[in-house]
């Protein structure tokens, strides 16, 4: 039987495969000024005119800050054993620096308690784009000092939560927040230009490695990773100039962020503009940028088709829009192209320094509606299944991929797109905060039900939110 004809089951991924769902603090928490929280760059960006579609902001978002107990119960109801969420730096350190806000520490401890009560394992991202605003006033990621500010924050988190959380991710998708926030100006803090971008990229790269080292020093049994956005790139034609353009885009989106972390330096041959980074690279930086993460999280949603263009500075390439190509798309206008995730898994696995891969995000947005108490979202279910088949194909071919986390739990604040794209397994009515499990959520619950049973049969949970073998097992 061909791989794609077989029924899809969670068991075919193996008993150790980690199944989960991912979120991020700014996108779900709301409670923008509760309990001493400081401003983050996204609080400021969303308060400025015309930054986010229809002026949406995230002051309330999904109100996860207050609704976490019920939302965590929903995770349990969906049979999802692992929950990835991020910590808001500006809650913990309202100015970005010491002192620490004890209310925020207490809050995240309560969130962890709620997860522990439901037997759900936490996976924490340290930085999912919400830099404290006061640090941005000093240059944010364009200021080299941001590496040590970030280090102080990582240390605080490791000291407060390292005894009860094992799974960590340092950064989320550096290419997206540096590209959107420091080059194109479409994400917070809204800066533009090559200088801002190159500085931010280099400092974020160094901070990623520094954060990994701090976690490893302070959390002896830590399982430490970091995540990268990646996109499968294909040339529009087989003309040499389109092939070269595709290579440049691939270098920018897929190679420039992971390779320095693997100790390979920045890939400047295929994308000469990266040579301009040299100004910001100090002696010892190439070594300092490298860290041997226990796992790499990849987040691949789509493919891009690329052609040569004289009009795009630095990369000399333009994307051929999915709509123009007549292919199926999601509400983000991203092509639905399941083989992309397979190709990217193969690519990342081929790096010698990548020990293990987890798909830390994958999912799709569609215009879901509640009708008679139900959300019928067959396209999301089809998207998830088709991508999972590609993950399984890669795994069966020997790629060391050991986990899959759906983006995302509930519909939430989708950055510059506001609340329009709905990515959740659970629908949220943003006026009433009422949650409705979508049919895709019910499908995921059904898909995971045997895994859950297997866990319950063989594992119990230690007092610190980590799974431990059952006594006498
Ligand atoms: O919502 C984002 C998330 O914050 C980072 N990865 C991609 C998701 C969908 O755009």
Structure description:
By secondary structure, this protein is α/β, with parallel strands linked by helices. It has a single domain (18-467), classed as TIM Barrel. It is built from 16 helices and 13 strands. The strands form 3 sheets. An 8-stranded parallel β-barrel has the order 1-2-3-4-5-6-8-9, surrounded by 6 helices. It has a two-stranded antiparallel sheet with strand order 10-11. A two-stranded antiparallel sheet has the order 12-13. Helix 15 links the parallel strand 8 and strand 9. Helix 3 (64-77) runs parallel beside helix 5 and helix 14 (339-349) packs parallel to helix 15 (378-396). The radius of gyration is 21 Å and the shape is globular. The chain binds 5-hydroxymethyl-3,4-dihydroxypiperidine. Residues 24, 27, 173, 299, 361, 407, 414, 423 line the site of 5-hydroxymethyl-3,4-dihydroxypiperidine. 5-hydroxymethyl-3,4-dihydroxypiperidine binds at residues 24, 27, 173, 299, 361, 407, 414, 423.
Write the layout of secondary structure elements.
Layout (H helix, E strand, L loop, with lengths): L17 E5 L2 H4 L12 H7 L16 H14 L4 E5 L2 H4 L9 H17 L2 E7 L5 H4 L9 H16 L5 E5 L2 H10 L10 H25 L4 E13 L4 H16 L2 H4 L23 H4 L6 E14 L8 E4 L1 H4 L13 H11 L7 E5 L16 H19 L4 E7 L18 E4 L4 E4 L1 H20 E3 L5 E3 L4
Parallel strand pairs: 1-2, 1-9, 2-3, 3-4, 4-5, 5-6, 6-8, 8-9
Antiparallel strand pairs: 6-7, 10-11, 12-13
Helix pairs in contact: 3-5, 7-9, 8-9, 14-15
């Amino acid at each position: 039987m061909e791989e794609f004809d077989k029924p899809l089951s969670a068991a075919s991924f193996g008993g150790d495969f980690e199944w989960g769902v991912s979120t991020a603090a700014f996108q779900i928490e709301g409670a923008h000024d509760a309990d001493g929280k400081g401003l983050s760059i996204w609080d400021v960006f969303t308060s400025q005119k015309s930054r986010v579609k229809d002026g949406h902001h995230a002051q309330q978002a999904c109100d996860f800050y207050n609704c976490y107990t019920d939302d965590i119960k929903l995770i349990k109801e969906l049979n999802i054993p692992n929950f990835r969420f991020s910590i808001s730096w500006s809650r913990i350190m309202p100015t970005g620096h010491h002192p620490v806000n004890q209310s925020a520490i207490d809050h995240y401890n309560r969130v962890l308690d709620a997860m522990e009560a439901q037997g759900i394992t936490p996976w924490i991202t340290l930085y999912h784009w919400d830099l404290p605003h006061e640090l941005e006033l000093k240059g944010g990621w364009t200021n080299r000092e941001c590496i040590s500010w970030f280090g102080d924050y990582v240390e605080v988190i490791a000291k407060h939560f390292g005894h009860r959380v094992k799974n960590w991710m340092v950064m989320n998708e550096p290419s997206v927040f540096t590209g959107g926030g420091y080059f194109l100006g479409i994400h917070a803090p809204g800066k533009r230009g090559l200088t801002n971008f190159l500085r931010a990229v280099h400092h974020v790269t160094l901070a990623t490695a520094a954060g990994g080292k701090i976690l490893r020093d302070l959390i002896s049994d830590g399982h430490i990773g970091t995540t990268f956005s990646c996109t499968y790139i294909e040339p529009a034609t087989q003309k040499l100039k389109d092939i070269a353009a595709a290579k440049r885009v691939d270098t920018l989106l897929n190679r420039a962020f992971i390779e320095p972390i693997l100790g390979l330096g920045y890939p400047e041959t295929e994308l000469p503009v990266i040579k301009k980074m040299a100004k910001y690279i100090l002696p010892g930086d190439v070594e300092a940028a490298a860290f041997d993460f226990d796992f790499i999280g990849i987040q691949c949603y789509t493919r891009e088709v690329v052609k040569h263009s004289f009009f795009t500075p630095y990369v000399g390439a333009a994307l051929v829009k999915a709509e123009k190509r007549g292919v199926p798309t999601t509400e983000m206008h991203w092509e639905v192209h399941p083989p992309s995730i397979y190709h990217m898994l193969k690519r990342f696995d081929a790096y010698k320094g990548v020990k293990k891969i987890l798909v830390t995000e994958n999912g799709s947005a569609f215009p879901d509606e509640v009708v008679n108490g139900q959300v019928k979202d067959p396209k999301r279910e089809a998207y998830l299944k088709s991508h999972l088949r590609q993950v399984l194909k890669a795994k069966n071919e020997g790629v060391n991929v050991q986990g899959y986390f759906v983006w995302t739990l509930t519909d939430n604040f989708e950055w510059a797109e506001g609340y329009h794209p709905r990515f959740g397994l659970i629908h949220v009515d943003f006026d009433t905060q009422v949650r409705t499990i979508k049919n895709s959520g019910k499908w995921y619950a059904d898909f995971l039900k045997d895994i859950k049973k297997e866990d319950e049969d063989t594992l119990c949970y230690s007092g610190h939110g980590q799974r431990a073998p059952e006594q006498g097992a």
